[in-house]
Design a protein that fits this description.
The chain is α+β, with helices and mostly antiparallel strands. The chain is 44% helix and 14% strand. The protein has helices at residues 6-27, 44-59, 66-74, 103-106, 115-134, 143-151, and strands at residues 37-42, 79-86, 138-139, 159-168. It has a four-stranded antiparallel sheet, sandwiched between helices. Helix 1 (6-27) runs antiparallel to helix 5 (115-134) and helix 2 packs antiparallel against helix 3.
Length: 180
């Protein structure tokens, strides 16, 4: 009889859950059925590069010291799911949820988020973290991670709003008790 220890399979398990999280995000409902999501997984080397960028942003003053805390926190992750959205209005004649009269007017302000894009992103993130929860993986949704990923163009230059979801499978959730 062979024996498989949890420590030997942990990384494989975390990556498999991360893949299922990507599927859950992709299949989450979207406004008018239009999919503007960008989704990826980072492994340990990618996480380390991202944490270095977060540290750089904090140390140069471009971002708050919260980025330093979150960079150290991120290094404890075994995998990271990035979920972002492109900013593209849906072409609605009557909406105004973004603050403009309609999508035509909003299109004149390409960096101003569309309410549907950000709403779809939130639903996708909720779907993804529910998969992590069902698998009992520790996780946390982090905007700081997404900001650094955007700087590095990890999801492409046109993916403008990104969040990161670090994942861990250890005896204590490293993303819960965080130093200020």
């Amino acid at each position: 009889m062979g024996i498989i220890f949890e420590e030997e399979e942990r990384n494989h398990t975390v990556l498999e859950v991360a893949k299922r999280m990507m599927a859950a995000a992709r299949t989450a409902p979207k406004g008018c059925g239009v999919d503007n999501l960008c989704i990826a997984i980072l492994d340990k080397p990618g996480i380390e590069l991202l944490a270095a960028k977060m540290t750089e942003l904090a140390e140069t003053g471009a971002a708050s010291k919260t980025f330093l805390r979150d960079a150290a926190n991120l290094l404890q992750a075994e995998a990271l799911v990035l979920i972002g959205t492109k900013i593209r209005p849906l072409g609605l004649k009557y909406c105004g949820l973004c603050g403009f009269a309609n999508c035509e007017e909003k299109a004149q302000h390409p960096n101003h988020p569309c309410a549907f894009n950000t709403g779809d992103l939130g639903i996708a993130i909720g779907s993804a973290v529910s998969v992590a929860m069902e698998a009992r993986l520790d996780n946390r949704v982090m905007y700081t991670v997404g900001m650094a990923a955007r700087e590095l163009k990890y999801l492409g230059a046109d993916c403008r709003i990104i969040y990161g979801i670090p994942l861990s499978c250890t005896g204590k959730n490293p993303f819960f008790d965080r130093k200020q």
